[in-house]
Write a structure and sequence with these properties.
Elements (H helix, E strand, L loop, with lengths): L7 H7 L6 H8 L9 E5 L10 H4 L6 E6 L2 H14 L5 E6 L5 H4 L1 H7 L4 E5 L9 H13 L15 E9 L7 H10 L5 H4 L7 H10 L3 E14 L3 H8 L1 H4 L5 H19 L7 E17 L4
Parallel strand pairs: 1-2, 1-4, 2-3, 4-5
Antiparallel strand pairs: 5-7, 6-7
Helix pairs in contact: 8-13, 11-13
InterPro entries: Methyltransf_12, SAM-dependent_MTases_sf
Pfam families: Methyltransf_12
Organism: Mixia osmundae (strain CBS 9802 / IAM 14324 / JCM 22182 / KY 12970)
């Protein structure tokens, strides 16, 4: 998906459930933060979690880097950090392609070295081009050493970790197939236009282990997600890449309404009019890169 397609204001209005405590508590619970850790928030979006005290868990001297593919999202994250004062942690933001982490974070790496933990929430399912390249990049960042001048800040950290949450197999069931079929009916390859990577726990575990991560836990977690702004707004926010294949705004609106009508019996409460998407499969994992030798 084109990085410019993301609009921070629309994302925070339509998809603020991504940052809700209910949605983020399970993945944050997997974090094990120590004083002085360096943490990368991969796919940080508008930075709500990046600057949240929940990410540092009250530990002192924590350095956090937020990265996202969207310049608009990063601009909003920087602004949000300035407005709220952020957390007590040292926080920096970068525009970076998740498939090219070492390249796009080169300035950060040159000055500060690698990371103790890579954290990601609701982002990796957008990195469909080469999921293994993302994992390789994470592994490389965790493999990198910390400069001697910062050694005191990481003295307590012996295990490096990759912790995250993403959409998994069966996610968006119904909505996804309706999008694919609507495009297919118009002579567009809906599967080729589909931007999402929703692996099963077994297949993602295999990818992680291929890069020598030790998978401590990985699970499929159901999540029912109300859509206060309605299904049409949700489709326009999350499927601009698919809709861009259509010739005109009228065609795009027709497809959106067609999908809404197809899903209305299953996804809209006839009494309240509220729309709900069944995000039936969120994958959460915690993996260890390695355990340092005691000195």
């Amino acid at each position: 998906m084109d990085a410019k397609a993301w609009k921070a204001q629309d994302y925070r209005r339509v998809a603020n459930f991504v940052y809700s405590s209910q949605a983020t508590a399970p993945v944050l619970a997997l974090l094990d933060v120590s004083p002085g850790d360096r943490i990368l928030d991969l796919g940080c979006g508008t930075g709500e979690l990046t600057i949240s005290p929940d990410l540092t868990k009250g530990c002192e001297g924590v350095s956090i880097v937020g990265s996202d593919y969207s310049p608009d999202m990063i601009a909003k994250a920087i602004s949000l950090g300035r407005t709220t004062g952020g957390s007590a942690a040292d926080v920096r933001f970068y525009v970076a392609d998740g498939h090219e982490l070492v390249r796009d974070l080169s300035k950060e790496i040159e000055q500060y070295g690698g990371f103790d933990t890579v954290f990601t929430n609701a982002a990796l399912h957008w990195m469909k081009r080469d999921p293994l390249a993302v994992i390789k990049g994470v592994r490389a960042l965790l493999n990198m050493s910390i400069p001697a001048s910062m050694a005191r800040r990481t003295r307590q950290r012996r295990i490096k970790t990759f912790v995250g949450e993403m959409g998994g197999f069966l996610n968006m069931i119904g909505v996804r197939s309706a999008l694919v079929n609507a495009l297919n009916r118009r002579g567009i390859d809906g599967n080729a236009a589909d931007p999402w990577f929703f692996p099963s726990p077994t297949s993602y575990k295999r990818l992680l282990e291929s890069e020598n991560f030790r998978v401590v836990s990985i699970e499929h977690v159901p999540r029912i997600t109300p859509l206060p702004e309605g299904l049409a707004a949700w489709i326009k926010l999350f499927a601009p890449g698919q809709l861009a294949h259509l010739a005109s705004d009228d065609d795009r609106e027709q497809v959106v309404q067609e999908i809404c009508e197809a899903l209305r019996p299953d996804c809209q409460d006839p009494e309240t009019g509220e729309w709900t998407v069944i995000l039936t499969a969120r994958s959460l994992w915690r993996v260890h890169a390695w355990e340092r030798q005691q000195k």
